[in-house]
Amino acid sequence: MNNGHQPTLTWKEVLADKIAPNLAEEIDTFETQMELRRQGTLDEKVFAELRLRRGAYGQRYDNGRRHDGEKSQDIPFPNNDLHKGPDTKWEAPGMQRIKIPFGGINSKQMEVLADIAEEYSGSILHVTTRQDFQLHFISIDDTPDMHRRLAAVGITTREACGNSVRNVTACPLAGVCRDEVFDVTGYANETAHYFLGHRDVQDFGRKFKTAFSGCAQHPCGLTSMHDLGLIAKTRTVDGVEQRGFEMHVGGGLGAVPHQAKLFDEFIPAKELLPVSQAIARVFARLGEKKNRNRARLKFLVTQLGIEEFRRLVWAERQTLEADPNWTEWIDTIPAYEETALPEPASGEALDLGEDFEKWKSTNVYRQRQAGFATVTVALPLGDLTSQQMRGLAGITRRFTRDTARTTVEQNIVLRWIHEVDLPALYQALSKIDLNEPGAETIVDITACPGTDTCKLGIASSRGLAAELRTRLAAKGMQYDAAVRDLRIKISGCFNTCGQHTVAEIGFFGSSRNVKGFRVPHFQLILGGEWDKNAAHYGQSLGAIPSKRVPEVVDHLLEIYLEGRQNGERFREYITRIGKTEIKAQIKPFTEVPSYNVDAWFYADWADAREFTIGDIGVGECAGELVSLTDFGIAGAEGLHFDAQVILEEGHDQARSERAAELALQAMLSAAQALIKVQNIDIADDAEPIIKEFRERFYDTELFFDTYAKGKFAHYLFDAYENRQASKTLDDALRLIEEAGLFIEAAHACNDRVQGSMVTANRSPFAEALAGHAVKAVGA
Amino acid sequence: MSIERFCIKFFTRPGPGLDEAVFIDIFHEWIRLKKLGGILLDVVDYRHVPKGPGVMLITHEINFAMDHADGRFGLLAQRKLGQGRSHGERLLELLRATVALGAQLESHPRIQGKLSFEAGVFEYISNDRLAAPNDDATFVALQPDLAAAAALIYPNRGVSIRRVQNDPRARLTAVVDAGTLTITELLETVGAVA
Q1: pLDDT tens sequence across A331-348
Q2: How confident is the model at residue A692 (pLDDT cuts 50, 70, 90)?
Q3: Which of A29, A199, A202, A267 is the most buried (most CB within 10 A)?
Q4: Chain B contacts of A384, Cβ < 8 Å?
Q5: pLDDT band at residue B38 under the 50/70/90 scheme
Q6: CA B175-B177-B178 angle, 5° bins
Q7: Which residues contact residue A539 at a Cβ distance below 8 angstroms, ignoring those fewer than 6 apart?
Q8: Residue from B60, B128, B139 whose CB has the most chain A CBs within 10 Å, to mutate
């Protein structure tokens, strides 16, 4: 086809004068690295880190294998020997993460995002829990052009992934919040750009996450769960108000969540970057590099103690060569202030009925600037189409001074809306189906990608989230004042990308062996606190079969509404009634019908395949040993639960010590249960258990998780080694978390050791499932 | 000028309600049984997105979607790569693959007559804003290939090809209309085309 256009134009040529030279050079360099990898002259491990630092991530099945529900199949990519990383096929679809510092985007950027989603992906854009965008099913061959098109509108994907400073997030209400101390937008943006490619952040052993909050009491910034958390603060010195930040370090979720520690009550604005740089240098120098499972800053802060960490940072600060970039930008902060359009875009008084009123009751926030509102565009599971994005770009231009922000709750907000424009805005959003009510309520469920696309996913977080969302919305829960503000967050595994630990009701994916069949489950996490910058992390209450989770949520809400006293909040109610009672309440929902009765439970949400973990197949039954081990692991779970209950009763030193002791006993019990498969006479004493566990399960790597490797085994070894040391409350809580994960790993190991039972009369899974019909979302 | 990326879409006839969850079952089954040509990769569920791609079958060469864009339900095929030295050859290849999938879908026992495609009409969407921007010149350049493909798959039928007037920021879209035809009838013709 010849359409009269120049036939050989490339995006590189077309955009040559639109991309900053340094960005253009980076992309060219990456393109060269890709070619060197194709030729085999660039090591695949090195290339993997290089592409991660361009935000080009792997995706599920990129090792070239996929379980089809009956067996693992090899995916016959044409060039199977070409890799983009260890065990990662070049031609396998990947994911592109696109950083959006503080979540700020304009309409032109939205349009380019829409274009590249259509041309390189499946026309769906996904907002993440760190204010990024993600596109899935990307070919790595398309990434240089994608990066050029983004760079041309001021977006870089550099250091979106990898061992780097990740996206710097900030409250989406910065600048318009009724409670903020001051607008943190400019500080967040300058921090992001200062550290982009900075030499002192190139040698981290792991990722580094930074968040800014305008206040201490609301959750928008989530500073307590970040490596570096900054909360806006002012002080008056000699009659002059100074801006600064309360600085927190060493927070993080992941498999074992850590609350950040207070680094300093007040860091003046001019010290924000140098002190942050000093922290980065200490992290780069002293942080763990070999064991990736212990390489986050939180482990270094815990290991050193906050006092020593602080001392080291201040000492490092003194060595830094002065950099004008630390402060040159401070006088430009006022330029970050946003304002509204001088006149309303429409101002038309429209009678839009009950739907508009309902939407207003949940999606509109009255700004501190009188007469203006911030509107949250609720995106189902954080997704929108390219067409919707283009429509939203037009709406952004029409109703604002061309800015919008993504949020960590996977939505987009439009700020500075004239209140008289709300009806017209609602009407415009309705035309592109972005008028869903219930933003930031119980129906606005956060979920990580999970088994949809993530290599680490264990169960379908998005499938479950879609189901819950539909059910709760059908009941109008987003309008019930008692429960509307609860947060439900779901992760596909223990790695907390869905932020389940800071939700009032959280779930993370897991698996259980039920009479020889694997069944998808979710661990129930209760007691998290979204408020106060994620001040409290929830704890696990046990595993629920995935298909029974909606019933559990219904039941928890029901007993809360019936049993709450004096208007107590959900977290207060849970704390008051206690874990023992909750366990008893959810116990009936932990049962799963046998496979032959209802095979529906043996597949995950929105997936027709019989549930599996990775490529591990179904083996033969190991006889009596199976039941002894199952019994032992169940005993371990009991001890684990007891440890949690002890701390419910109080937080004094004696209880902390006892809870820590029980956590260790739980791990020993699980380890002993596994050993019994090979040595039925294993003693009850700790020392032989540790010895034999190490020999039989750790040295042989039998206990190793595919991706976490031996991490969970080390929880037991470290706990035993430090058993005599005095335990603080933090220690006890950490050991309880680790014990829970060790027990999870013991379940998984047990599955691998035993295999699954195959009954003589088992019908093909697909037939069994068809007979019961896959239950659709909302059906 | 050579376009690698483009889409086609066959719309469905109005019919009895269909629970789209069934596509999840069917696509997983097809991957397991290797029912289609190409390298079948995965199934993705976007039913929660209004007017979105619905349930998708991802293959190495083509993304298939039970698509609801603009509120019109149909089978969308998004070409990513494949055989064919010219745009015309690639278009035919995509049409063959899409018609084959559509026919299999329509006749699947789990569908049971609840899905029927308007096979005499398809939408063509260029998916490369650099090589084929949304303008008259592109449409004029596209027409011969669309006409040639239509002549092959809709022999002895009057065919109209018109450009869809859409958002200039969107992709160039054209409709090829050969009247009423079932997908089974189209499959016979497409299968016979070399």
Answers
A1: 999 999 999 999 999 978
A2: very high
A3: A267
A4: 49
A5: very high
A6: 160
A7: A525, A526, A527, A579, A644, A736, A737
A8: B60
Query: Do residues A39 and A584 lie in contact, with contact meaning Cβ atoms separated by under 8 Å?
Result: no
Of B42, B52, B130, the CB nearest to A385: B52
Across the interface, whether the CB atoms of B110 and A91 are under 8 A apart is answered no
Chain B: residue nearest A93 by CA? B60
> What average pLDDT does the segment A96-106 reach?
97
Distance between B22 CA and the closest CA of chain A, angstroms: 7
Query: What is the distance, to the nearest Å, from the Cα of residue A118 to the centroid of all Cα atoms in its chain?
Result: 25
Give contacts of B86 with chain A, Cβ < 8 Å.
1
What are the pLDDT digits (tens) for B112-167?
789 999 999 999 999 999 999 999 999 999 999 999 999 999 999 999 999 999 99
Evaluate if residue A774 carries a pLDDT over 70. no
Nearest to B24 among A60, A384, A606 (CB): A606
Q: What domains appear along chain A, each with residue ranges and CATH number? A: 11-151 (no CATH), 177-334 (3.30.413.10), 353-431 (3.30.70.3340), 441-607 (3.30.413.10), 622-754 (1.20.120.330)
Test mutation, B2, B41, B66, chain A, max A CBs within 10 A: B41
Residues in chain A within 8 Å Cβ distance of B127 = 118-119
Instruction: Output the average pLDDT for chain A.
Output: 89
In what order do the strands lie in the sheet containing A56-57?
Answer: A56-57, A94-98, A133-138, A124-127, A383-385
Strands A505-514 and A488-491: parallel
Interchain proximity B53–A463, CB inside 8 Å: no
pTM above 0.80, yes or no: yes
Distance from CA of B137 to the nearest CA of A (A): 6
DSSP SS3 for A48? helix
Min distance B75 CA to chain A CA atoms (Å):
14
> Minimal Cα–Cα distance from A289 to chain B, Å?
35
CA distances from A750 to A358, A692, A713 (A): 50, 16, 14
